Amino acid sequence: MDASPNFDRARIRNYALVTLAYWGFTITDGALRMLVLLYFHTLGYTPLEVAMLFLFYEIFGIVTNLFGGWIGARFGVKLTLYGGIALQIVALLLLTPVNGSWAVTRAVPYV
């Protein structure tokens, strides 16, 4: 029975870490969305064109959530989290060449 308090502490610690990670992701995801929105607004994109960016973002968010859950269940949460962070870093680096001189038909699908 002595192991029970330690087990409970470990579970609470893990729950707190996951909660803090989720909060951190939620804050940074919201900030990133605002930065993308404001960036394309300053380039002169119409509200509909900016909305199309977020439409693609949300569609692929559904797909990645489905596959992310499957990958997490199959290969473990640790690999899934590290892989997701690596993909986010690569995706943000791929945004660096976006230029204001690009045509809308090129920039919107690229982003």
TrEMBL record:
SUPFAM superfamilies: MFS general substrate transporter. The keyword Membrane applies. InterPro entries: MFS_ArsJ, MFS_trans_sf. The chain crosses the membrane at residues 20-40, 52-73, 79-96. The keyword Membrane applies. Keywords: Membrane, Transmembrane, Transmembrane helix. This is MFS transporter.
